[in-house]
Amino acid sequence: AQTVTQSQPEMSVQEAETVTLSCTYDTSENNYYLFWYKQPPSRQMILVIRQEAYKQQNATENRFSVNFQKAAKSFSLKISDSQLGDTAMYFCAFSRANAGGTSYGKLTFGQGTILTVHP
Amino acid sequence: GAVVSQHPSWVICKSGTSVKIECRSLDFQATTMFWYRQFPKQSLMLMATSNEGSKATYEQGVEKDKFLINHASLTLSTLTVTSAHPEDSSFYICSAREGMRNTEAFFGQGTRLTVV
Lengths: 119, 116
Hints:
The complex is a heterodimer of chains A (119) and B (116). Chain A has 119 residues and is an all-beta fold. Chain A is built from no helices and twelve strands. In chain A, the strands form three sheets. In chain A, strands 2, 5, 6, 10, 11 and 12 form a six-stranded mixed beta sheet that branches. A four-stranded antiparallel beta sheet of chain A has the order 3-9-8-7, with no helix packed on it. In chain A, a hairpin with a 2-residue loop joins strand 7 (60-61) and strand 8 (64-69). With 116 residues, chain B is an all-beta fold. Chain B has no helices and eleven strands. In chain B, strands 2, 4, 5, 6, 9, 10 and 11 form a seven-stranded mixed beta sheet that branches. In chain B, strands 1-3-8-7 form a four-stranded antiparallel beta sheet, with no helix packed on it. Chain B is globular and about 40 Å long. The mean pLDDT of chain B is 92. The interface between A and B is medium-sized, with 25 and 22 residues.
């Protein structure tokens, strides 16, 4: 079974600054996917960024980037130039990959981190 | 991008009644759908995995007779909460995976259920 741990229940950052959210996971799988999801007050789940375990290069999406440390089973999210619209709950999530390398789609979530961006 | 529509967005029902929540994939065929439950300020917990044309697979601790899941077509899965009680009040979210896509499942907007 997989576990995902987010040890920061709440974080805050000033607008335009950088913040890093932490995530660790445990699995015996060799290939898998890791995700960061954003859940704003509307509660719609929004995919922020994804990382496939066999890819060594860290994923980036505009202001969002990850630090993926496979051996340490760590997957942190860095948000640069924070904006007020980044205020949300952020979830780290894990999904196994099948033999074809695709994600099963079934997600195990961490506890979440509430991020508040202050003006 | 792929769109998943969940209906209703919110529902209030009386204790002892049943309520049905629909999850539709609008522009792709969803071979697999997932149902999650989320309490306020908490994480999403997987309830069950639904595959088109077969019985759902429930996670440990989820009462299959209470949470009936049907996935009769490639675009629709339903979750029926039977004999609802106040403790069933929660936020229910579905996600759908299209067989050929390889990176993610797409989420509906969720349904807030309040049992009074």
